[in-house]
Backbone:
């Protein structure tokens, strides 16, 4: 059974997007990127991801009711990450699998992600990381890899729950800072040449305060997360 075929646990609906191409020679899939669709409906999002004029796509779309659409085979490059960087790597489309999670997003009335949707996201992610060598440190949100232009999947997405399910990591607590904020952000994986890194970090690891300000708690969370990522000690 190939990586783009149906498998136990997640029942796939299929619609082929033309917005895909071959991965670069020598590229291996080692990154999983989570997005929200940021559109008013699942149908509108899927239509756009399959529209040649839009020139965007993703491998999967997870609907509010837990239905999962497969648009691009995992063996191909989908066009979802754009201008992006993480832990020193740039242009992550070539090495990643992209999941779009249906949600209107900040522009259209951002709402919490429902139970059926979260269960489906966890099941799909588990299957993907079971097929590809994706280290937990390379499970990211779009805002992590493009903090200067993206907010998704945003502060309402439950990263802690994903980590508890074995998908990615979510270091807990705060630590006494032993490095500047920029150094800690870089140790985690953020491209600190880009604006918005602090707010992107807060969306993922301090969702109750997304203001882009390095206060004492944010600094302490940065230290704890950097240690959890094997960075600054």
Residues:
């Amino acid at each position: 059974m190939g990586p783009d075929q149906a498998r136990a646990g997640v029942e796939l609906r299929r619609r082929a997007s033309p917005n895909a191409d071959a991965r670069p020679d020598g590229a291996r899939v080692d990154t999983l990127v989570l997005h929200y669709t940021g559109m008013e409906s699942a149908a509108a999002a899927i239509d756009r991801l399959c529209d040649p004029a839009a020139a965007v796509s993703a491998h999967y779309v997870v609907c509010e009711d837990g239905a999962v659409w497969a648009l691009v085979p995992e063996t191909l490059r989908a066009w979802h990450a754009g201008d992006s960087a993480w832990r020193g790597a740039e242009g992550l489309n070539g090495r990643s699998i992209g999941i779009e999670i249906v949600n209107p997003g900040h522009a259209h009335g951002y709402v919490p992600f429902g139970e059926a949707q979260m269960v489906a996201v966890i099941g799909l992610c588990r299957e993907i990381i079971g097929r590809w060598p994706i280290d937990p440190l390379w499970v990211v949100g779009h805002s992590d890899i493009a903090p200067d232009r993206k907010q998704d999947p945003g502060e309402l997405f439950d990263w802690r729950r994903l980590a508890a399910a074995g998908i990615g990591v979510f270091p807990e607590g705060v630590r006494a800072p032993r490095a500047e904020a920029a150094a800690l952000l870089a140790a985690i994986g953020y491209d600190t040449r880009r604006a918005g890194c602090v707010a992107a970090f807060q969306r993922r690891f301090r969702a109750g305060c997304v203001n882009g300000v390095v206060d004492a708690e944010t600094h302490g969370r940065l230290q704890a997360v950097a240690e959890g990522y094997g960075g600054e000690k």
Summary: The mean pLDDT is 95. Residues 52 and 179 are 46 Å apart (CA to CA).
